[in-house]
Amino acid sequence: MPRTISYKDAGVNISEADKLVDYLKTKNKAIGGFSGLMPLPKNIKKPLLVASTDGVGTKLLLAKSLKDYSTIGIDLVAMVVNDMAVSGARPLFFLDYYATGALKVKEARQVIDGILEGCRQAGCPLIGGETAELPGLYQPGDFDLAGFAVGVVDADKVITGKTVKPGDVVFGIASSGVHSNGYSLVRKVVEKSGASLNKKAPGLGNKTLGKTLLEPTRIYTSLVSKLITKVNIKAIAHITGGGIVGNLNRVLPKKADAIVHEGLWPIPPIFEWLEENGPVDHNEMYKTFNMGLGLMGIVSAAEIEKLIRAGKALGEEIYVVGTIEKGTGIVEIAQ
Fold it and tell me: How much is the average pLDDT of 123-130?
């Protein structure tokens, strides 16, 4: 009789997956079933469900090269819930999808711990997900992440940008660094420069270049939810892939332009390092990266001082970075 083969022989180790599920159950007893359950909040008059999904992109390759998976789970949550926050929504729950060629529980636990920390910062639970071992589709050591969230917002309080008009003011809120976009270009610059990820780079302080680039994406849900109760914010943009130029324009009416004045906020040194060591064209930087502003928004001129005061009360500096003028729906960086 020929020797039988098992699922493990085919490259899928169920016992390793079970170890990860057991670990997750210690973090949330609701995890482990076939689906997650979550009641709708009762204090919203006209609840609208809001859904968002995203990944971490090629920042995963940087984490892999450094063998440090402790922060990319935070990135994953941030990329999803920040997209929700700009509409005024708050996340109700989060789900993750972790796909790999061969599951390594130690690495997976680092990723999951990051996701749990991201959910803590965002104020929503991780109620389930999927861990898929896919030999042949992913090479050993390779993996990918995706995140999904559902949130809620009152239909009468959705932030749409429809009331933005010339004379309004553009503001910005600081990022924590590069966040999770543009890493194909980041890795190209690092490769071309010959810089070591494990060493400090000139102008970047005490952190190594690798640690600086792995700095997790800032989560804005709590800040936004507090600001919008105090100030009438007309529009908010999450500055992700496409940079300031390619994201702020998404909340502009077709007959209005945003003129953003460079020099009105501090640009983290990592962006200067990337621009110099590419070199990367200055305009390309604004079309690719957040340049130090992870979130941007628009208020009326009458509201800007109120917004600044509200930010200070929350320990946040709000930067006035531009104005809205008549136009065709584009963003211009004035140097």
Answer: 92
